[in-house]
């Protein structure tokens, strides 16, 4: 049996991409397990809010052809309700995105700390409940900065995107503040911006193709749902189709883990290249290892 993948080592462009897929392949079952445990609640809420939005949209469409049910005040209330639903959905999507990032980066951090072995559910929960609100607040601030950057001819936003992506893994892996992680992300990516950006572009293209393939059934069902609303007996099937379409889209969100793992691999690679922390840890262990054979005591 081959040993588990070492996270803390320098990598070139191709090795980062290949090791991203290798890490997911070696740890697919535990990653899938923790995805549903720690992100499942947000998936349910975001899916439920999207289903409600679709129902309201179809009801609004149907009522627009009913002169007895459609008036200006009713239309205003329906539009306002749909906007409110979209805002609720956006909030749950942000919470879901942060949960995914925190889950994956906590998993990778514990995996490295435990010398390339799997973390337990209790260890994962301890890390996630400690970091989630910290990462949520820092991500909201980063979103605002990115929006401002994209408003200035897109270039600042594009430049800052790979740098800001490293803030979350730095905060979790090094248990540090947002300010330190913010400054450290610029130091780590110095002289490596183009290679890091190239990795994220390649992973994004792969992720886009995967999502496109997975979303084909959703698009077919969505088109069928719209077509059914043009028929007389559409209400019986519109809700089940909306539920199935939304569930397919929610499950496909798991594949976004590909980008998160790529960010983690980039972080550990850049850290090893710049600081050599993994090498120093291995050197320090030479003088502490027991000469007698046997299993090492478990570390917490």
TrEMBL record:
Which keywords annotate this record? Membrane, Transmembrane, Transmembrane helix
Species annotation: Mucilaginibacter ginsenosidivorans
Query: Transmembrane region positions?
Result: 34-53, 86-111, 131-152, 158-182, 194-221, 241-270
Q: Has keyword Lipoprotein?
A: no
Q: Which domain of life is it from?
A: Bacteria
**Could you tell me what this protein is called?**
Glycerophosphoryl diester phosphodiesterase membrane domain-containing protein
The keyword Cytoplasm is assigned to this record: no
């Amino acid at each position: 049996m081959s040993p588990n993948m070492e996270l803390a080592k320098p990598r070139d462009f191709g090795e980062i991409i290949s090791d991203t897929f290798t890490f997911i392949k070696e740890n697919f079952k535990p990653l899938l397990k923790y995805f549903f445990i720690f992100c499942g609640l947000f998936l349910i809420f975001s899916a439920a809010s999207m289903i409600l939005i679709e129902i309201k949209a179809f009801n609004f469409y149907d009522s627009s052809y009913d002169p007895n049910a459609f008036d200006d005040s009713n239309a205003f209330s329906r539009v306002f309700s749909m906007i409110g639903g979209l805002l609720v959905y956006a909030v749950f999507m942000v919470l879901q995105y942060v949960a995914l990032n925190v889950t994956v980066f906590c998993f990778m951090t514990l995996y490295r700390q435990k010398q390339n072995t799997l973390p337990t559910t209790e260890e994962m929960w301890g890390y996630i409940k400690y970091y989630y609100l910290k990462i949520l607040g820092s991500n909201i601030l980063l979103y605002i900065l990115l929006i401002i950057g994209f408003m200035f001819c897109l270039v600042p936003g594009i430049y800052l995107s790979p740098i800001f992506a490293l803030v979350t893994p730095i905060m979790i892996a090094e248990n540090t503040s947002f300010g330190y992680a913010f400054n450290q992300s610029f130091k780590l990516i110095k002289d490596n911006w183009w290679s890091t950006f190239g990795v994220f572009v390649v992973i994004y293209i792969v992720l886009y193709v995967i999502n496109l393939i997975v979303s084909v059934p959703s698009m077919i069902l969505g088109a069928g749902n719209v077509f059914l609303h043009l028929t007389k007996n559409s209400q019986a099937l519109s809700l089940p189709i909306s539920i199935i379409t939304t569930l397919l889209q929610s499950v496909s969100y798991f594949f976004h883990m590909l980008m998160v793992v790529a960010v983690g691999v980039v972080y550990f690679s850049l850290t090893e290249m710049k600081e050599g922390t993994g090498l120093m840890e291995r050197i320090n262990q030479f003088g502490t290892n027991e000469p007698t054979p046997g299993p090492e005591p478990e570390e917490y």
